[in-house]
Amino acid sequence: MFYQAVMDRLTDASARGLAEAVSRAVGEGALAGGLKLPPVRSVATELHLSPSTVNSAWQLLRRAGTIRTDGRRGTVVATPGAGGPGRYRAALRRTSGFGLDLSTGVPDPALLPPLPGLRGLSPAPSSYLDEPVLPELGTLLRERWPYSPERLAVFDGAMDAVDHVATALLRLGDIALVENPCFPPLLDLLDTLGARVVGVATDAHGMIPDRLAAALTRRPAAVFLQPRALNPTGASWSPSRAASLAAVLAQTPQVYVVEDDSAGDLSSGPPLSVGTHVPRQTVHVRSFSKSHGPDLRLAAVSGPATVLDPILERRLLGQGWTSRLLQHLLLTLLTDPASVTAVAAARDEYARRRRLITAGLASAGIDLPPGEGLNIWLPVADEQAALLSLASAGIGAAAGTAFAVGSAVAPHLRVTVGLVATDHGEVAERLATAARAAAQPIPR
């Protein structure tokens, strides 16, 4: 099992190439945590590499936390939580050498709004007992929220918020429902918390209500959803889909829903939430990273007091609050005319880039369902062959396996087409070629 998993992913007979092949196999679930690795000399013989190359690869993997030494058992694959988020590394690893890296899922820096001058911003709270949410920002957020929230808080980014909420809601062995495919860091987080993750099928409008109803019979503790620009597919809810999902969820009032609206102001549609229908079950997270800058590290969160109050009380014992200076900066970005115009222009430009790429793919016979946001979910004949095809053209993409729950999802790549500023026809042609690339056996 070890040799086949590695050979299927080995494209470069170097220490780094071997380390990346093992890392991908771990991240994609082909090599399970706790698996004992063969001796170095056996690996070298089987893969036709030198023992020094294998030793160097093992050093890289130990440094990354992918493998570890386990006493008399020797070297083993690190168990989930012991070596960092495997799916996250598999999906978002930055590999040098790509002229066009479309694997990252990040916004184009050139399309972010310019930061306003810092003059006039409050340098510090007047007291440690000041309100955790800047009052003016809280008022603005409530005006723009998809429903009237009972509690509103600000956290250090969407995943920080989801981490706090998931930790509060889930216990070891609880079932958590997620979209399939789904955002890898969420899967890593749920694995770390010891939750049993169940994927629910999606279509062009997000999670399918009938499939959600069936999955709810398994008595989950929480459901995790992305209302707009689902990462990786780009699917966004319609108002009717939001209402249908809420109607299903209303049948299980003990189940909480955690919504991650990561697209935020880059979405062309209105903000939607099942909280409009079932507010007592809903925690809604709105991120500003993609629209206003990843390093802003801010997300707003709403939810019932029974969920958020204990989280906020516990937070007072640690970080306490999210920087009010950054909150003031966000308030300025959300209201400054130049910033508002820049975000609107970025939204239109991302839509244009996506439209040009999908049109090029359609001309090549590859039709994608409607969607929005920075990414497309590209169906491929073979994942590794497609990645190699793109790499040969100097293009990076993210392996779809990292986004999938189980084996029900067909081979795909996530491609961040929001970063394609020029040559859309040529890029679309490269993507179409990669999508059709067939697997090539590795000679032994």
Descriptive report:
The chain has 16 helices and 15 strands. The protein has 444 residues and is α/β, with parallel strands linked by helices. The strands form four sheets. An eight-stranded mixed sheet has the order 4-11-10-9-8-5-6-7, with helices on both faces. Strands 12-15-14 form a three-stranded antiparallel sheet. Helix 7 runs parallel beside helix 8 (184-192), helix 7 (158-169) packs across helix 12 and helix 14 (337-363) packs across helix 16 (424-436).
Question: What's the quick description here?
Answer:
It contains 16 helices and 15 strands. By secondary structure, it is an alpha/beta fold. An 8-stranded mixed β-sheet has the order 4-11-10-9-8-5-6-7, with helices on both faces. The protein has a 3-stranded antiparallel β-sheet with strand order 12-15-14.
Q: What's the helical proportion of residues?
A: 25-40%
The value of Rg in angstroms is: 23 Å
Largest β-sheet summary:
8 strands, mixed
How many β-strand runs? 15
Low-confidence stretches: none
Termini gap: 15 Å
Mean pLDDT, all residues: 89
Q: Treating each run of at least 4 consecutive H or I residues as one helix, how many helices? A: 16
Strand order, main sheet: write it out: 4-11-10-9-8-5-6-7
Structural class: alpha/beta
Shape: globular
Strand share of the residues? 5-15%
Family: In the C-terminal section; belongs to the class-I pyridoxal-phosphate-dependent aminotransferase family.
InterPro entries: Aminotransferase_I/II_large (IPR004839), HTH_trans_reg/aminotransferase (IPR051446), PyrdxlP-dep_Trfase (IPR015424), PyrdxlP-dep_Trfase_major (IPR015421), Tscrpt_reg_HTH_GntR (IPR000524), WH-like_DNA-bd_sf (IPR036388), WH_DNA-bd_sf (IPR036390)
Pfam family, one: Aminotran_1_2
Domain HTH gntR-type: 12-80
